[in-house]
Amino acid sequence: MMKKILLPLLLLMAASAFAQIEKVIPDAPSPVRFVVDLTGTLTADQQQTLEAKVKGYEDSTSTQIAVVLIPTTEGYEMVDYAVALGRKWGVGQKGKNNGIVFLIAKEDRKIFIAPGYGLEGAIPDITAKQIVDKIVLPNFKGNDFYGGIDQGIDALILAAKGEFVAPEDQNNGEGSEFSIFFFFIIFIIIFLARSKARHGGGHWTFGGSGSSWSSGGGGWSSSSSDSSSSFGGGSFGGGGAGGSW
Amino acid sequence: MKNLSLIIVIGLILLLGGCGCSGYNNMISLDQNVKKVWGNVQSEYQRRSDLVPNLVNTVKGVADFEKSTLTEVTNARARATQMTIDPANLTPENIAKFQEAQGQLSGALSRLLVSMEKYPELKATENFSSLQTQLEGTENRIKTARNDYNAAVQEYNTSVKRFPNNLLAGMFGFSEKGYFSADAGAEKAPSVDFTK
User: Fold this and answer.
1) A175 CB near a chain B CB, below 8 Å?
2) Are the beta carbons of A166 and A184 closer than 8 angstroms?
3) I want to staple B190 with a disulfide (CB 3.0 to 4.6 A). Which of A83, A240, B34, B109 is the partner?
4) Domain B27-187 is found in CATH 3.30.2390
5) d(CA B144, CA B109)
6) d(C-alpha A121, C-alpha A161), whole Å
7) Taking the C-alpha atoms of B13, B14, B19 and B20 in order, what is their torsion angle to the nearest 10 degrees?
8) Cα–Cα dist A64/A97, whole Å
9) Taking Cα atoms as reference points, which of A125, A121, A189, A132 lies closest to residue A155?
10) CB of A140 closer than 8 Å to CB of A190
């Protein structure tokens, strides 16, 4: 008897689980912004810098990275929250689904990086996990939220270009240290390339993929308001990885 | 006078026919949607099955690992991969069978992961932590695909059972489709927390 009542109830709960989580998720910012801090962690300057970085990246590749800081997921799992947010906002371009949700739940002390369907090839779970564990979390553990997010975005950009090297199938512990060293070198190269491009006004191409960091008054330093972006993708299937600090 | 009633009758037939057509078309598109998301469910479960040989090979290398746990996983995988459903046949019974077969693999996997805990040399390998991440990601995808499937089926079932579609549904063979039930016991996703 009990089972007869309970089973349909459970079925209904499973079916409507997605509809419920939608209500918890904040509405997409209008006009579109990519860095949304609902926790008051980042200063206005920091938000602007990150916004400019993500926006500049969207301008050159159309890939959208939504960085969202929330206090808590209200009991939902990080992956479910990130997927539902990506879908509700429509992160990514229509047809390409090249969006990434970089979710930080500060009070839960958890993060999750969820790439859309279009990026699951470029950012497999292992890569997302490496970025979380080796780049973002160490900064968060030292209470450097801005640094963690900033470097996390850099790593995601590298990964989306296929230039983030994740160590695989290594049977000793040295691999991870080597890879951190390797990322560090890459960061330095990028940093140099960027500042060179900014000062020299040149056009620096990085790697074989043909994308470039634009110079001078280009996308880099421009504020997010001068060309409008829009969300239109939103196809997320539960890929990605997370961690806690 | 005769003409008027004729017009009314024709009008009624057209109206009902129009309703029926749009209802029919609606059911067709909901049905297509269920089939589409079902494809995702199956391919995510397939993704998990594809990971199992890797996992088994990693463990095999360790001397004196409990053979029975490994055999159980291999057998459960074989049964789970055999169990495929024709998208035209997503009846509640078939879904329940499918879920049971996959649930057995979930159970066997989680037992394997628990016994792996006893081998620190296994946990230390990079290969192992990458398998762990892949398994976690796969379980997440399965969960998402199942939620999507249930939502699509709910929409479809509601439409099929509503008047006047229910009359048409019987006529054109739109039958109710099955849901995945909420995780309970063995069906629970294996815990892949190796940090303990």
Assistant:
1) yes
2) no
3) B109
4) no
5) 20
6) 11
7) 60
8) 9
9) A132
10) no
Report CA B11 to chain centroid distance, whole Å: 45
CA gap A87, A105 in Å, rounded? 18
* Contact across the interface for A126 and B40, Cβ inside 8 Å: no
Q: Do A240 and B153 touch (CB under 8 A)?
A: no
What is the three-state SS of A153-199?
HHHHHHHHCCCCCCCCCCCCCHHHHHHHHHHHHHHHHHHHHHHHHHH
A25 contacts A88 by C-beta, under 8 angstroms:
yes
Confidence of residue A131 (pLDDT cuts 50, 70, 90): very high
Question: Which chain A residues are closer than 8 Å to B150 by Cβ?
Answer: 11, 14-15
Q: Which of A7, A79, A175 sits opposite B181 (nearest CB)?
A: A7
DSSP string covering B138-164, please? HHHHHHHHHHHHHHHHHHHHHHHHSTT
Residue B78 buriedness (CB in 10 A; 0-12 / 13-18 / 19+): middle
What is the sign, positive or negative, of the torsion defined by CA atoms of B145, B147, B150, B156?
Answer: negative
Answer yes or no: are the C-beta atoms of B178 and A13 closer than 8 Å.
no
Tell the residue number behind the tokens 């006009």, with chain if given.
A31
Residues B24-82: tens digit of each pLDDT:
888 888 998 999 899 989 999 999 999 898 888 888 877 677 788 888 999 999 999 88
| Res A89: pLDDT | 93
**Residue A60 CA from chain centroid, whole number:** 17
Q: Are A32 and A228 in contact (CB under 8 A)?
A: yes
Q: Taking Cα atoms as reference points, which of A147, A125, A154 lies closest to residue A54?
A: A154
- Among residues 118-157 of chain B, which lie with CB inside 8 Å of chain A? 124-127, 130, 133-134, 136-137, 140-148, 150-151, 153-154
Q: Is A10 on the interface with B (CB under 8 A)?
A: yes
CB pairs under 8 A between A and B: 82
**Model pLDDT for residues B65-78, shown as the tens digit of each residue:** 778 888 899 999 99
Q: Does A16 touch chain B (CB under 8 A)?
A: yes
Residues from chain A that touch B39, judged by Cβ atoms under 8 A, are: none
Question: Which domains, from first to last, does chain A contain?
Answer: 17-244 (3.10.310.50)
SS3 for A20? helix
ipTM higher than threshold 0.85: no
